[in-house]
Specification:
Strand content: 5-15%
Strand order of the largest sheet: 1-6
Order of helices and strands: EEHHEEHHHHHHHHHHHEE
Helix content: 55-70%
């Protein structure tokens, strides 16, 4: 006797992967989401600060760009510098993420690059000519970041360890190494005074120009590398399917280790920019958690360096601008981070609706399973 077919109600809704959305429509959704996010920040800030809507945005723009003097804004370069640091970390993570190696260790890799920079500045600053000192700082920072990135890659390639946990743990190790070094060099004060030797040169009165130019060059090179090089193609194939990559003759282990060496090296460069180009010192908060924000920037930028420029510019604008609004109303500095977090959440939700649609049940009749 045949079993009676089970029956149950069709789900009220289900999520369906979109086959193809026109590019213009996808970008229209993203632009509308960004505008709605800015409006949302404005209305929330109005409710918290009791300031007018347009006053909120005036404070935000002035907090980011300062006053307009002689045709340029007094704080524009500082804004570009903050974009450059976050963008550099995002670019560093992109090759690994495109390969589906979840590198959550940008914070530690950048700290190790910064540590190499400060050691060179302190130990060799008075004994090496300036060009040689800068070269030594650059090489050691790149190597330090690369080594810190290769360690979890080797374990992943050889023993299939969990790269997310491994790279996160490497962050804690790097933080404690920095803390120990700062304690020793700071004479127990947990502070290293700014070092004069080995700093990047200023262009006029602009201390950030060199950092911005370096990151701009990295952005262009990374786009070319990922889109047009053989290694960029191998990264894409490994990310799509390791079995397919092996079938067509790609050495997956080699690609994993090489890509993480590049990712770690670029994080090391970011550490160098923070130490030699910005702070001239180091502490456990030098990266300031931006290594984790960079994960979202890389993902929201769809692993495209030029889209990442837009995403980082928006996030940095909100972070600085809302912080200024908070300061003007004597609010806690966490208000800025809360607003940035909400905006990022809205952007993540936007990407969901770009890639998926929700289909609702049309009838309530039962269906046989």
């Amino acid at each position: 006797m045949a079993k009676k077919a089970d029956s149950k109600k069709e789900p009220f809704f289900h999520v369906v992967k979109r086959d193809d959305m026109p590019l213009w429509k996808a970008w229209l959704i993203r632009v509308v989401t960004i505008l709605v996010a800015f409006l949302f920040v404005g209305f929330i800030s109005m409710g918290v600060t009791e300031k007018g809507f347009f006053e909120i945005y005036r404070i935000m723009f002035q907090g980011v760009f300062g006053r307009l003097l002689n045709g340029y804004t007094t704080m524009l370069w500082k804004y570009l510098q903050e974009i450059a640091i976050l963008l550099a970390l995002s670019l560093a993570l992109t090759p690994a993420f495109k390969m589906k190696f979840w590198n959550c260790g940008a914070e530690g890799q950048a700290l190790m690059g910064g540590l190499a920079s400060i050691i060179c500045m302190i130990e060799f600053g008075k004994s090496l000519p300036y060009p040689a000192l800068i070269a030594v700082i650059a090489v050691t920072s790149i190597v330090a970041g690369a080594v810190w990135g290769v360690i979890p890659a080797v374990f992943k390639a050889l023993f299939n360890t969990n790269e997310t946990l491994f790279t996160l743990m490497m962050n804690y190790i790097a933080t404690q190494i920095i803390a120990y070094y700062v304690y020793i060099k700071g004479g127990g004060s947990n502070v290293i005074n700014p070092v004069a030797e080995g700093n990047f040169p200023s262009v006029g009165s602009n201390d950030y120009f060199v950092n911005i130019v370096i990151v701009a060059v990295i952005t262009i090179v990374m786009y070319i590398y990922l889109k047009f090089s053989k290694q960029g193609y191998e990264i894409s194939v490994v990310g799509e399917s390791q079995n397919t990559a092996r079938y067509i003759g790609i050495n997956v282990k080699k690609v994993v280790i090489r890509t993480m060496a590049i990712s770690g090296a670029l994080c090391g460069v970011t550490g160098m920019l923070l130490v030699a180009g910005k702070d001239h010192s180091i502490n456990i908060n030098s990266v300031g958690g931006q290594g984790f924000t960079a994960i979202l920037m890389s993902w929201l930028g769809q692993f495209n360096p030029f889209i990442m420029v837009i995403m980082t510019a928006i996030v940095v604008f909100l972070r600085i601008g809302v912080a200024k609004v908070a300061d003007s109303s004597l609010l806690n500095s966490s208000f800025s981070e809360i607003m940035v977090g909400i905006v990022i959440l809205m952007l993540v939700g936007c990407e969901f609706f770009v890639n998926y649609s929700i289909k609702f049940r049309k009838t309530s009749k039962e269906v046989n399973v």
